[in-house]
């Protein structure tokens, strides 16, 4: 392993460690490359993280090793990282409050990348300057295919979902989950009620299309696309756009053009790795820009 390397990121000094460790061994993709990816994608990623309490999925020994979710900021977190303390109803660790990090800048993003926080998850709401929760500003539908269904089937479901949202005066934006599914995001300015709205619309799609289910039981998903509306619960998080995923290769949750959804005929068409995501950023800019506006 390489020695500790001190670098300046913006106006902060950071100590980076184990830069040559392969966090994606099958792809020979190292921690240095993870940090490089997050640094280069930061102009597109940071607007989607600002103000959102952070949950990360850390893989200190790479994607083939032990991992853990982390909400509470680590004890050694620098004092310049923005944190907010929020109630934690239903905490699996019986905590009444959690001190979350908020990734508002590049140094904080690099700090977490150095912790092997490969996956970045955030809620559909933000906090204000005082750290108080605001109403949701985003609605999400997580389209999850039950084998043998694939992301091709998710695309098939996303199109009537887009139409239904449009009928309600809402614009929608698709992205891959970076795993096997598809997610459709909607900028939301109608206050509370995202969960109820999403549940009703998911139920309507399930009633109209036999290949759709809005039932959470895994037994109901075989060969169908589960429209998961529950991610709009304020206690839940969804993988952020441009986040890496912990797969054998460094796949990315990637914003899409609707034309790509319309033309998808094979799952491989919508698999994008970190280099692909950077190339797409050069070509398209932030396809999710309106979601964070």
From TrEMBL:
The keyword Ligase applies. InterPro entries: LigD_pol_dom (IPR014145), MtLigD_Pol-like (IPR033649), NHEJ_LigD (IPR052171). The keyword Ligase applies. Keywords: Ligase. It comes from the Bacteria. CDD domains: MtLigD_Pol_like. GO terms for molecular function: DNA ligase (ATP) activity. Its EC number is 6.5.1.1. Pfam families: LigD_Prim-Pol (PF21686). Residues 30-288 form the DNA ligase D polymerase domain. NCBIfam families: ligD_pol. This is Non-homologous end-joining DNA ligase. The lineage of its organism: Bacteria, Bacillati, Actinomycetota, Actinomycetes, Streptosporangiales. The gene is ligD.
